[in-house]
Amino acid sequence: MKYHKDKKWTNWGKTQTCRPALTFYPQSRADLVSIVNRARDNGKRVRVVGQGYSWSPLVPTDDYLVDVSNLNRVISIDSEKRLAVFETGVTVGQLDKALRKHNMAIPSNVLSTSFSYGGVVSTGSHGHGWDCQTVSDYVEALIVVLASGDIVRFSEVTHGKDVMNAVRISLGTLGIILEIWLRVEPIFNLEMVERKVGIDVVEDVSQLKTLVENSDYFSMFWVPLSSGLWLMEWNKTDKEAKRRPRSADISDFFGACMGNLQGKILRRWPTLTGKFMRLIFDKYVPKYKQEIRDVSDATHYRTAVTLIPSHNLSFAVKLDEEFENVKKVLFAVLDNVRAKEERKEFPLNLMVQVYFLKSSQALLSPSFGGDDEHYFYIELLSYRGTDGFDSFMKEISDELTSMPELQTRPHWAKRFLDVPGARLKIREAWGENLNQFSKIRDKLDPAKMFLNEYLEDLLAGDTVELRHADGLTTGKHKILDPNHRL
Ligand SMILES: Cc1cc2nc3c(=O)[nH]c(=O)nc-3n(C[C@H](O)[C@H](O)[C@H](O)COP(=O)(O)OP(=O)(O)OC[C@H]3O[C@@H](n4cnc5c(N)ncnc54)[C@H](O)[C@@H]3O)c2cc1C
């Protein structure tokens, strides 16, 4: 099996780096078993990396890093059983292509096609949709190589609901996922409407409630400092869909190039932010646009998103009956950003995004909740290296977590985890779920082979003090200055 010694690893977001003693590139289940056995014999720890898109300190290790990108075979797609079986390193784009040949699709998914499913599932990543859950909730079974070297197939049938709901989102701490069995559906079409509205849609939340509850999929964007909102309402339709044209990818690519140029300009001359953002809202956001796409093309409506170096803070927030929580959260952000403009500070210069979806069953899901509950995710995006984004992130995190009715929980893959004090907040937010998860984890991996120092502190259980309560240092690994420029 191919491996490297002391090879430096850095994530896409340039927030994490490490130099593992050995980096392995397995191609088979036998390779995975031999890595785990070698680690056990030598007292080494193991972390896995998919495509390395997560901002948070989930991957870094000084011991063994396992790059699973060569485990990328789609094994079977069964239209009758509505099941896709594939290896962990298969990317969202690869599986889309294979599913399309069988007229099948995943009803809700992440925006980009570049991520590995191992990474998407392990972090509880999500798309949106009133009746849709996170991708991890669509997992029927996972085949995992455990610390003992045993290969175990986890499913509700074999291990029961509780264990399966722990395994669904594991942050790579239970073992190395080899295969994913995912529930899929016959592909369907969506009528997609984009339009611009005033902010009064959220001020008078009854308007928003009606819009969200009458859409199969609903998302909402605020171009920072602009005067309105950009809505996307998608509904299932029997009308015929046109495939997303190549020209849309090309236009996305040029849009990303312009975005990069704009990012560089705004970092250099931040006082232009307000003017630029308002211009984008006026000229770029459509007044009204309607198109019909199949769910796969609709989900990945921006293909070049990974070409824009960004930072992203994201929380799941519980949706209350009256939608008051949406108003509280959105205005906490809007008021903060507007007040900062008055002081000539511009920490937010890309987008605020809000997505609605059904609660998740996975113990570690940010949107974990009861069967009839809904959550919304709010994401705050700025160009990498924007001055003041970190302190803005801390202010917003403190404000949202101080309102208990919001039940705010951060996205595992994004930026909150390195906010000072974050781990204590994470423990509070997940409470008993985190303890339950840790108990199952400790049974499967008593020697803590699959933890790095960051995760060990986080999952150590409530009897152990956090060793790095400020959340910024993890042993020898360096968490890079998130604002450093490329
Ligand atoms: C531009 C951008 C857009 C994004 N859009 C979305 C979005 O629309 N919705 C959303 O929810 N998230 C989004 N994310 C977050 C993204 O979904 C996660 O970061 C995801 O984990 C990326 O996949 P990856 O293959 O890069 O995983 P990595 O970052 O490589 O790994 C993530 C975690 O998965 C674990 N892991 C990976 N493979 C295995 C395995 N085989 N066994 C055990 N553990 C494993 C790793 O150890 C790590 O803990 C976005 C991120 C970026 C950068």
Shape: globular
- How far is the first residue's CA from the last residue's CA? 33 Å
Name the hetero compounds present. flavin-adenine dinucleotide
In the CATH hierarchy, what is the architecture of the domain at 189-416 at level 2?
A: 3-Layer(aba) Sandwich
CATH topology of the domain at 189-416: Vanillyl-alcohol Oxidase, Chain A, domain 3
State the low-pLDDT regions, or none. Answer: 462-486
Radius of gyration: 22 Å
In round numbers, the mean pLDDT is 93
Give the class-level CATH name of the domain at 189-416. Answer: Alpha Beta
Task: Considering the chains and any ligands shown, give keywords for the structure.
alpha+beta, 32% helix, eight-stranded antiparallel beta sheet, 14 helices, binds flavin-adenine dinucleotide
Textual characterization of the structure:
With 486 residues, the chain is of the alpha+beta class. It has a domain at 189-416: FAD-linked oxidases, C-terminal domain (Vanillyl-alcohol Oxidase, Chain A, domain 3, 3-Layer(aba) Sandwich), CATH 3.40.462.10. Helices cover 32% and strands 24% of the residues. It has 14 helices and 22 strands. It has helices at residues 29-42, 92-101, 117-122, 156-167, 200-203, 205-213, 246-268, 273-283, 295-299, 324-342, 389-401, 422-430, 432-444, 453-459, and strands at residues 2-5, 9-10, 16-18, 22-25, 46-49, 64-67, 74-78, 83-87, 104-105, 139-145, 151-155, 176-183, 185-186, 189-198, 217-222, 228-237, 288-294, 310-318, 351-358, 374-383, 409-410, 478-479. The strands form five sheets. The chain has an eight-stranded antiparallel sheet. A five-stranded antiparallel sheet has the order 7-8-12-10-11. A hairpin with a 5-residue loop joins β2 (9-10) and β3 (16-18). Mean pLDDT is 93; it is low at 462-486.
